[in-house]
Design brief:
The protein has 385 residues and is of the alpha+beta class. Among the domains are: 76 residues, no CATH class; 102 residues, TATA-Binding Protein; 87 residues. The chain is 50% helix and 15% strand. Strands 5-6-7-11-10-9-8 form a seven-stranded antiparallel β-sheet, sandwiched between helices. Helix 3 packs antiparallel against helix 5 and helix 8 runs parallel beside helix 10. The longest helix is centred in the first third of the chain and has 45 residues. The radius of gyration is 42 Å and the shape is rod-shaped.
Length: 385
């Protein structure tokens, strides 16, 4: 800072003052000294202009940075919102939601829990892509999306989700089977492994699962069934076998390579002229009108609501097979996702109606019809496997 010398008008003392000062106090006499110097005023104005220009330059620089950041952010959002990742995030959110539901329905809890995390990850990525939620970290939507994709591996490892059905019984539900107790056990060879789960056992049908077996043991059982006489109308593949014996008993076997188990379904021969016999038998034992509600069945011994549930289930599974054929032919067609969503809605209703009969007591005719529907559905499913 430059100084200049002036004299105090009161005491004559020589004072050193800054160039930009317009007044000061005398150090000798204490009087106030007013400085009226044009050069000093010019200096102050010049310095004020310099400060103003500096502030203006700083303000312009700050605005430029803001504009650059805004343009960069707009370009980033544009790329993010128009990219393919948004479409994949939406699609995988829907798919994972459906597969998570199926995992819980099949009792695969760990897979279901992982599925919930996947739905949350892909859903969050979708909201970030759509700018519904702020993205505080650059490329956070990509990071979350990749995390959801990585979880596909443990999801599949902990349990294969089977949309089409299958046994879906966990190994904790397996039990030791007493083959000799089953009514129709003498019509079949005894399995080597007797660990599994019994579904139905009556004089007209038998249905059960044999668990924790390899494919070679399944093939040995198929051979044993052939030796037992099931050689009529044979239909055989690597994972299924169906045939009848000379008495007319129908046998269906299916091996699940994922769960390492096979199902056994046996039903009694179909009776000819059932409807005629029923009419003849009903004549001498015709019941009064007030007793009809006790036998809420049709002429075939099937309750109307039971038959409707079975028929709805079979109709739906036929639709499912046709859909899966179309999907397998063109898996990259994203337009099928809408059809898939509609399918799952119908699937839920059909399964709810169908599965409630697991806890109901069925008569012999209903059990037989149940097995016939299951056999036809399983054969149909082989078309897409």
């Amino acid at each position: 800072m430059e100084l200049k010398k002036i004299k105090c008008p009161s005491c004559g003392g020589e004072l050193d003052i800054p160039e930009d000062s317009d007044e000061m106090k005398c150090g000798f006499c204490g009087s106030k000294v007013i400085i009226d110097d044009k050069a000093t005023e010019v200096g102050r104005i010049k310095k004020a202009e310099i400060r103003a220009k500096k502030e203006l330059d700083e303000h312009e620089l700050e605005n430029k940075k803001k504009n650059d950041n805004y343009n960069d952010e707009r370009e980033y959002k544009k790329k993010k919102n128009t990219g393919k990742l948004k479409g994949w995030a939406i699609a995988l959110t829907i798919i994972c939601l459906l597969f998570t539901f199926t995992a819980f329905r099949d009792g695969k809890i760990l897979s279901g829990l992982i599925g919930i995390v996947q739905v949350a990850a892909f859903g969050y990525a979708t909201l970030l892509c759509l700018d519904v939620l702020p993205e505080k970290i650059t490329n956070l939507h990509k990071i979350v999306f990749i995390g959801g994709c990585i979880l596909i591996v443990p999801f599949l490892a902990l349990g294969n989700v089977q949309i089409g059905g299958g046994s879906s019984y966990t190994k904790e539900k397996a039990e030791n089977l007493d083959w000799s107790e089953y009514v129709l056990s003498d019509k079949l060879p005894e399995p080597k492994t007797l660990k599994g789960r019994l579904n139905y056992d009556s004089s007209s049908s038998l249905s059960l699962y044999i668990m924790d077996v390899d494919k070679n043991e399944y093939k040995d059982y198929v051979s044993a069934c052939k030796d037992k006489g099931y050689t009529v109308d044979i239909s055989n593949s690597s994972t299924s076998f169906s045939a009848k014996n000379e008495e007319g008993y129908s046998l269906y076997l299916y091996y699940d390579e994922n769960d390492k188990e096979y199902s056994i379904s046996l039903s009694e021969p179909k009776k000819e002229s059932t409807s005629e016999e029923t009419k003849e038998e009903s004549k001498p034992t015709e019941t009064p009108k007030e007793e009809k509600p006790k036998t809420d069945t049709n002429n075939n011994g099937l309750r109307p609501n039971f038959k409707k549930a079975m028929d709805d289930y079979e109709t739906f599974m036929n639709e499912y097979v046709e859909f899966m054929k179309k999907y397998s032919a063109n898996p990259s067609d994203t337009s099928l996702l809408k059809d898939y969503t509609n399918y799952m809605t119908k699937y839920t209703k059909a399964m709810e109606s169908f599965e409630k009969w697991d806890e109901e007591d069925m008569n012999d005719a209903e059990t037989k019809y149940y097995l016939e529907v299951q056999t036809r559905v399983n054969k149909k499913l082989l078309e897409v496997q």
